[in-house]
Amino acid sequence: MTKTGTFLAVAACLATISLKAQTSFKFDFGSGAIKKGYTQILPESVYSKEKGYGFLQGASLTAASHGKDALKGDFVTSDKPFYFTVDIPEGDYDVKVILGDAIGESEQTVRAECRRAMIYRETTAKGEIKEKTFTVHVRRPGIAGTNEKVTLKPREFGYFHWDNQLTLEFNGASPKVCAVEIKKAEKPIRVFLAGNSTVVDQASEPFAAWGQMIPAFFAPGKVSVANYAESGETLSNFLAGKRLKKILSQMRKGDYLFIEFGHNDQKQKGEGIGAFTSYKRDLKYFIAEARKKGGIPVIVTSIQRRNFNDEGKINETLGDYPEACRQTAKEENVSLIDLNKMTKVMYEAWGRQESENAFAHNPQIDNTHPNPFGAFEMAKCVMNGIKDAKLGIAKYIVNFDGFDPSKPELISSFYWPLSPSKSTVKPDGN
Question: Is the pLDDT of residue 198 over 80?
Fold first, then answer.
């Protein structure tokens, strides 16, 4: 091979490596002038493997140019929710979105991956442009340093949170996106979540869980919520599926591991299986393994099921499992967020009828799995628990003034434009 041929081959190889490892992107949305150093995004910029970025099919998009500023004077919008996705390596990323209209108003909600709440609701007045930043955890099934992978369930193959991309959902009455910038986050504190369907990033309406709501309550760049929960999981199944191993492979000193199980564990049968035996043993294993990595374990008791007695009080349907969590927290000297206790107070404050509004209807009411409103209220309970436990991450809480479970909000105060993904299939676990 000639020197020229060798040089070209090496250059091509380096270009391929660079493309695969790219962790910084700048996209200028709209039909106006292109900001130097940015890639223009037009309505026809549909995702392809060759480009490695673009809109997903499904929404009719339009572009507008209403100002002279190359970056902030134009935008892309739609009257339906739309997705923008970027091929990106595993890790934590700070995402800046520039929103608004140089001559009009806008209103948008932004979610990441599987309906992970990042920007709850952001409005801009006529001519106003806003810049908002949030931090997103991106993951893949492979476990670093091994040939192993997380054992995914068939339904997980189509989820945004196990693919090779960072996917953003733009929703709301009038979303107007001027620009998106993505860069690798500078080692934020990771809050890893291990749990079941009441914690997971639920992929489809009308289901939701508290784990996908709490990212909106943390300061960007400081905390990254890494939700590894999955529907139907028990402590033992989570271990067998290598989900804990995946978490531990990424955990740094000072990261957190929030552990919430119980709904499915209580259905396990057999000799030696029970709340004060196998369940406590596995809880202590999770705690010990997190500590080996310098992590900070936190036990979260299971949310209550919506099950009222004749006196309007919640029946305790989770047996000894919440108490086993409380005992383990004391014995292992770890922080406890008693979500079981807080949700009991909250459901009873709502009452039998009003509490229906916090759970998924599909079409019958599901008394285990929350809808987005219920998940949002439960997330506020968790944030309250973080503050009460005086966890170090409490200083990075934003958009939260405290919460009294005995005085929950009503659904009339909640805003959640529906995501395009809908399902009539009930999540695993009951």
Answer: yes
CA distance 152 to 149: 8
- Supply the pTM of this predicted model: 0.94
In CATH terms, the superfamily for domain 27-186 is Galactose-binding lectin (2.60.120.430)
- Cis omega (within 30 of 0) on the bond before 420? no
CA torsion sign for 135, 140, 143, 144 is: negative
Q: Which two tokens stand for residue 306?
A: 């919506």
**How does pLDDT run across 38-49, given as a tens digit for each residue?**
999 999 999 999
- Give the residue among 303, 307, 305 at the shortest CA–CA distance from 340: 303
Of 109, 165, 158, 151, the residue nearest 132 (C-alpha): 109
Residue 118 · residue 172 · CB < 8 Å:
no
CA dist 291 and 277 (Å) reads 21
Q: How far apart are CA 185 and CA 424, in angstroms?
A: 37
| pLDDT higher than threshold 50 for residue 11 | no
Phi, psi of 333, deg, nearest 5: 55, 50
Q: Say if residues 278 and 285 touch (Cβ distance below 8 Å).
A: no
Answer for the pair 343, 388: CB distance below 8 angstroms, yes or no: no
Amino acid in position 94? D
Q: What is the DSSP string of 63-74?
A: EEE-SS-TTTSE
State pLDDT tens for residues 75-93: 999 999 999 999 999 999 9
Can you tell me the distance from the alpha carbon of 15 to that of 11, in angstroms, rounded to the nearest whole number?
Answer: 6
187-412, CATH topology level: Rossmann fold (3.40.50)
Domain chopping of the chain, boundaries = 27-186, 187-412
Residues in the chain: 430
pLDDT in tens, 225-235: 999 999 999 99
